[in-house]
Specification:
Elements: H1 3-19, E1 26-28, E2 40-44, E3 47-50, H2 52-57, E4 63-69, E5 74-80, E6 88-89, E7 91-93, E8 98-100, E9 103-104, H3 106-116, E10 122-133, E11 136-142, E12 147-150, H4 157-165, H5 171-185, E13 199-201, E14 217-218
Antiparallel strand pairs: 1-13, 2-3, 2-10, 3-9, 4-5, 4-6, 4-14, 5-11, 7-8, 10-11, 10-12
């Protein structure tokens, strides 16, 4: 960049600085960006799964308690001991590593789906906020901020052959259509009110904090059957 160009850029920066304000700006939702390494929970109608980033963020935690705030539409998780009331094992712990595990949770999931008015044919992924509260490291998940993906149950070979026998399509055409449906089902979508904005206006934006634990209840492990 020439000396003249540098001078022009400096003058423009000075102009912007003199007139800048947050009016009209929105803070872009982080859900709009790639977040493979961010802590997240995926909720299905019969199970919940915390990703590896979330598990690693609580260091040596093998058991957690799940707290639910129905009014704020939040769930929080905190580390606990195996013998604590309502303790849930959320990962597979090995000497050299820990990894995610599916937690079967139909009663819990169904209550969340009913609370949020979610579609039983979809799964919901929510990014977590790591906070400190009263000596605990917690993850808080805001249930209104979701990435939504349509669930699709893959057909067996026998089902595709049977479908071909009752239609004008060949098994190969049905298999191709099935592959396309699965591909489309994997594409996430977002709440309707996100379509015309990047995020929340700066003046309305606030970081997740827990001024009080009031309103959260530890969800008991009703009829829980866990899968490795």
């Amino acid at each position: 960049m020439s000396e003249m160009d540098t001078q022009v850029m400096m003058e423009r920066a000075a102009e912007i600085e003199d007139t800048f304000s947050y009016d009209g700006y929105q803070i872009a939702r982080r859900e709009m960006f790639a977040h493979l390494r961010e802590p997240a929970v995926t909720i299905r109608k019969d199970s919940i799964t915390f990703n590896t980033a979330c598990i690693n963020g609580l260091e040596d935690a093998v058991y957690i308690q799940i707290l639910v705030n129905s009014e704020q539409h939040r769930i929080a998780i905190r580390q606990c001991e195996e013998e604590d009331k309502d303790a849930i094992r959320w990962c597979i712990a090995k000497p050299d590593k820990r990894k995610s595990r599916k937690i079967t949770s139909k009663p819990f999931s169904q209550r969340l789906y009913d609370l949020m008015g979610w579609d039983n044919s979809c799964r919901y992924k929510i990014l977590g906020h790591r906070i400190n509260y009263e000596g605990y490291v917690l993850y808080v998940f805001e249930l209104d901020e979701t990435e939504i993906t349509k669930e699709h149950k893959k057909k067996t070979k026998e089902q595709m052959i049977a479908e071909a026998e009752n239609s004008s399509y060949t098994p190969e055409q049905i298999a191709a259509r099935e592959a396309e449906e699965i591909k489309m089902a994997r594409k996430p979508f977002y709440p309707d009110d996100w379509h015309n904005s990047f995020g929340v206006p700066v003046e309305d934006h606030s970081n997740v904090t827990l001024e009080s634990i009031t309103g959260y209840g530890s969800f008991a492990s009703m009829n829980r059957v866990d899968k490795e």
